[in-house]
Write a structure and sequence with these properties.
The protein is of the alpha/beta class and about 190 residues long. The protein has a single domain, classed as TIM Barrel (Alpha-Beta Barrel), CATH 3.20.20.30. Helix content is about 45%, strand content about 20%. It is built from 7 helices and 7 strands, in the order βαβαβαβαββαβαα. The protein has a 7-stranded parallel beta sheet with strand order 5-4-3-2-1-7-6. Helix 2 links the parallel strand 2 and strand 3. Helix 1 crosses helix 2, helix 2 runs parallel beside helix 3 and helix 3 crosses helix 4. The protein is elongated and about 60 Å long. The two termini are about 25 Å apart. The model has no long low-confidence stretch (mean pLDDT about 90).
Length: about 190
């Protein structure tokens, strides 16, 4: 399971700082949101400030036209060098419309220009993405991560109140597979706290 950091409820200054740190620590993705119509502004800014972390944007699908959503996602995909993802909270027809546009299809006589840099941009319905607020207590949070991973979730976005170094060492590795030896993360803490 891939573990991403949910930054939707963070202050704007914290979003940038935590996203850059998530990028340095090798987390899979960060999820950002914002006032409807402005969500992609922070994502575009992060595209220029990060190198590796995927940039997921939470969009309210019923407030924006599918073409406008697809265009913004495609532009972010170019700015981020193929790291854009989208989670759309809206009806399935609008989500499918966005997916088809991003896949290069002509929809209702309209083609997306520019097309995204990726051949396939990840676009999920909000109901299909798991998101959870972790407590910061590693023992409890390990159990939560194990439950989501063992239920077969492929992606999980978490709100995390603590150090991102701890999240990356102890929980992102655990999310990747049940066989990660905890002693390795514990030893890393003693070497470089």
């Amino acid at each position: 399971m891939r573990l991403g950091l949910d930054l939707r409820n963070e202050a704007p200054s914290a979003v940038i700082e935590r996203a850059r740190e998530a990028d340095r620590l090798g987390l899979w993705a960060v999820l950002v949101g914002g006032t409807p119509g402005t969500e992609n502004l922070i994502t575009a800014q992060l595209a220029t400030l990060t190198e590796h972390v995927h940039l997921a944007v939470w969009l309210t699908g019923d407030l924006l036209h599918p073409l406008a959503m697809a265009e913004e996602i495609a532009i972010t995909d170019h700015l981020s060098r193929r790291r854009a993802l989208a989670i759309i909270d809206g009806d399935e027809a609008r989500i499918d419309h966005v997916r088809r546009l991003l896949s290069g299809h002509i929809v209702n006589g309209v083609a997306l220009a520019p097309p995204p840099a990726q051949t396939s941009v990840g676009v999920w319905a909000a109901d299909d993405i798991a998101s959870v607020s972790l407590t910061g207590d590693l023992d409890d949070d390990r159990i939560t991560i194990d439950e989501y991973r063992d239920q077969g979730h492929t992606h999980l976005f978490v709100s995390w109140p603590g150090s991102l170094r701890t999240l990356a060492r102890h929980l992102a590795t655990r999310a990747a597979g049940p066989g990660f030896p905890q002693i390795t993360a514990d030893h890393a803490d003693t070497i470089a706290p």
